[in-house]
Input
Amino acid sequence: MRERQILFSSNQIATKVSELGKQIAQDYENKNLLVIGLLKGSFVFVADLMRAIDKKIVIEFMTTSSYHDAEHSTGRVEIVQDLERDLTNFDVLIVDDIIDSGLTMKSVYELIKSRNPNSLKTCALLDKPSRRKVEFECDYVGFTIDDLFIVGYGLNYGDYYRNVDHIFIFLQEDEE
Ligand code: IMP
Ligand code: MG
Output
């Protein structure tokens, strides 16, 4: 079996998610918050984050695709499943699992912006700023990490490991 190294335990993640939720609840106190989770990667994070935001909110999901079963992005972001809701009266927060090249967040940000929400911000549990191909700064970031391919807590390798409750990396492949 490939050796793994745990990067963030489920406790570390829970603490961070709770801090993010408190901050967001405070910042959106008098606002009409609509969270848009980007599927599939963010579904575990969004499920925990929304319960850490102690106020009335609306949740929607969009499915985006850029990674295809591999560790490398195709560089193209596809909206696989769009929203149906009118955003004009909402303070929208786009939530993703991780920002890598920045292509996904940037293109979704621009698309949502063109639909004229009251306000628009972004949140990601993880950020790899050294990997940016386009300039993009996220408003709420859980953990900033180096250039590592990470897995678990919604993040996949191939089609697997999204269900793992912590975040890990695979170490060097074993010699056969
Ligand atoms: P970006 O468009 O290059 O910023 O990539 C964002 C998307 O790629 C995220 O929504 C993830 O689904 C996926 N991704 C980026 N880095 C990783 C990683 O380290 N592990 C698993 N998925 C990743
Ligand atoms: Mg994704």
